Amino acid sequence: MIRHATRSFGTRIFSGSAAILCILASLIVPAVAERISNPIAEFSGLDKITGRITTFDVYIDETVQFGALQVTPRVCYSRTEDEAPKTDSFIEVDEITLNRKIRRIFSGWMFADSPGLNAIEHPVYDVWLKDCKQRSEVPAPGRTN
Q1: What is the DSSP letter of 86?
Q2: Are residues 67 and 123 in the same domain?
Q3: What is the pLDDT of residues 92-111, one digit of tens each?
Q4: What is the reported pLDDT for 132?
Q5: Do 74 and 12 share a domain, yes or no?
Q6: Which secondary-structure segment (H or E) carries 61?
């Protein structure tokens, strides 16, 4: 009888310890937010000479020219509405030089909540990610409205 009681007590301690470990693990390991892939990246661009800021939509894998820059988003991710907003996009930016050569000046991730983190370094233009969208008033490439 004593052995049986000891085993039962030991089993209760083990299952109680396992429950505590599961609770602690859920507190330590953050939940992974669902990423939503969007077909459109929304950018803002600043012309430093005129001081004019322009907002423009670019479809994924489409290239849009802003001044001497060509902006091409490859992916644009956002999160569900119940998650903390984290909008990021992988972008390629090329510059058309004065002698009409195309030179890659940026290739990497941009984050809408930290526009200065991976800013494009250009003497005349700044471009930063504002948002990722499912719809745009701009017609998709190859379509006219």
Answers
A1: -
A2: yes
A3: 999 999 999 999 999 999 98
A4: 94
A5: no
A6: none
Is residue 114 one of the residues assigned to a domain? Answer: yes
Count how many domains the chain has: 2
> Residue 96, CB half-sphere, CA atoms under 13 Å: how many?
10
List phi, psi (to 5°) of 127. -135, 135
Beta bridge partners of 39: none
Inside any domain, residue 117: yes
Structure tokens at 8: 């039962």
Distance CA 138, CA 40 (A): 10
Helix (H) or strand (E) segment spanning residue 92:
strand 88-96
Q: Which two tokens stand for residue 61?
A: 């894998």
Structural domain including 95 reads 35-133
Q: What is the CA radius of gyration of the chain?
A: 25
Residue 138 lies in a domain: no
Q: Count how many residues are written for the chain.
A: 145
Taking 70 as the pLDDT cut, the residues of the chain under it are 1-33, 84, 118-119, 143-145
Classify residue 109: in a domain, yes or no: yes
